Structures are given as structure tokens and as C-alpha cells.
Amino acid sequence: MSTTSGARGLFITFEGPDGSGKSTQARMLAERLRRQGRDVLESVEPGGTPIGQQIRRILLDPANKELTATAELLLMFAARAQNVEQWILPALARGAIVVSDRFTDSSIAYQGAGRGLGREKVLDLDRIACHGLVPDLTLCIDIDTETGLARALSREPGPAAELRFEEQAVEFHHRVRAAYHHLAQREPQRFRLIDGRGTPDAVAAKVWEQVAPLVQ
């Protein structure tokens, strides 16, 4: 396993462009694993812990147009560090399956490529914040940029509209998707692209094909 020394659980992350359906797939997988009697921790980024949720509000609020790329990256990792130490590592230590909606690969795609900060700057922070934690399996729900953005922008807004990233220029989102494809080429054993077209159940079946060998 790719988790830190002593961890006995399984760490599965979901990635994908905005509107890809990854959050739905993460939830469906967690529910399926629970029906099998598994101990599952669901997490979402940015956010997760109560402290992380406070940071999330800053990161996703469209009003924060002056937030710089570097500050954005640091806030992402502040929330992630809290999540890793407070929730994820303890869950893995007790043997749970952690299903996370985004992790460091999102920062490689969004801040590293989308914002132009570069992969190495992201990985430098990852080494500090994540204690060497790497997902055992990453499932990237892939969908073309225009379709994904149309989906994301058509969703019913929550109590506070979290549209700061969706409102970025389409070129930003093209860079994000290209970075995900590069990750799939770079780490094919861990990082798998899943075709996000089709019904949620059809996509979930493709997800399960990748997860089943690790849990059966």
C-alpha cells in the first residue's frame, strides 16, 4: 500500500474537472462499501473537518476575486493538513477505507497547472502537509471541459454559491483537464481515468471494476 508506515486501511480518492460527477461517484462508492459492512470515512476537499470547512468558504466564495494563486494554494494545503492529521490518518490506522472527494492531485491540476504555479511547488507543500500519504487508488472521472462546466453551472446553488472555480476562464479548465491526463500517463498504476459519460450507475460500474480487486 502507498499509505504511511503502520497504516492498515485503504485510501481511495476521486478527481475530475468541475461538473464531472466525481462527488456523486465518491458518495455511491462509499455507500456500496458500507452495504458490504466496511468501515468507511468519507471526506471532501477543500473542507472535511470543521476547520477545513471554514477555509473552504474562503476558497470557493466568488467574492474573493483578489485571492492570489499562492494564497489559494496555501489555504488548500492548510485545510488538507488538518484533514490528514485529524481524520484521514486515524481512520487508516484503524483499518478503515477512506474515500476522499479530491486530494493533492487536485492541487497539481488546479493550482499547479491551472494557476501556473508548477508541480514542484505543490509537491513541496504536500511533503509538509500530508506526511508522505499517497492514495492507494485515484479515480479521475473524465469529461470534456464544456460539458462539465455546463453541468456545474446548472446545478442548484447551495446556501452559499461555491462557484469561484467554475467562473474561471475556459482556458483555465482546459489546463486542469490536461494536467489530469498527464497524471494518468505518469502514474498509471495509481491514477485511472474513468469515462464520465453515461448514467451515474453506468459510471459507478466502471468505478467498481477498478476498486473491486482491492477490497475483495
Question: What do you see in this structure?
Answer:
This protein has 216 residues and is α/β, with parallel strands linked by helices. The protein has a single domain, classed as Rossmann fold (3-Layer(aba) Sandwich). It has eight helices and five strands. It has helices at 22-35, 50-60, 69-93, 104-114, 119-129, 145-154, 170-186, 200-215, and strands spanning 10-15, 40-44, 97-101, 137-142, 191-195. It has a five-stranded parallel sheet with strand order 2-3-1-4-5, sandwiched between helices. Helix 1 crosses helix 8, helix 2 runs antiparallel to helix 3 and helix 4 (104-114) packs across helix 7 (170-186). The relative contact order is 0.21.
- CATH 2nd-level architecture: 3-Layer(aba) Sandwich
Give the assembly state of these chains: single chain
- What percentage of amino acids are in beta strands? 5-15%
Number of strands: 5
Number of self-contained structural domains: 1
CATH topology: Rossmann fold
End-to-end separation: 15 Å
Describe how the helices and strands are arranged.
Elements: E1 10-15, H1 22-35, E2 40-44, H2 50-60, H3 69-93, E3 97-101, H4 104-114, H5 119-129, E4 137-142, H6 145-154, H7 170-186, E5 191-195, H8 200-215
Parallel strand pairs: 1-3, 1-4, 2-3, 4-5
Keyword list:
single chain, 216 residues, alpha/beta, Rossmann fold, 5-stranded parallel sheet, 8 helices, globular, disordered N terminus
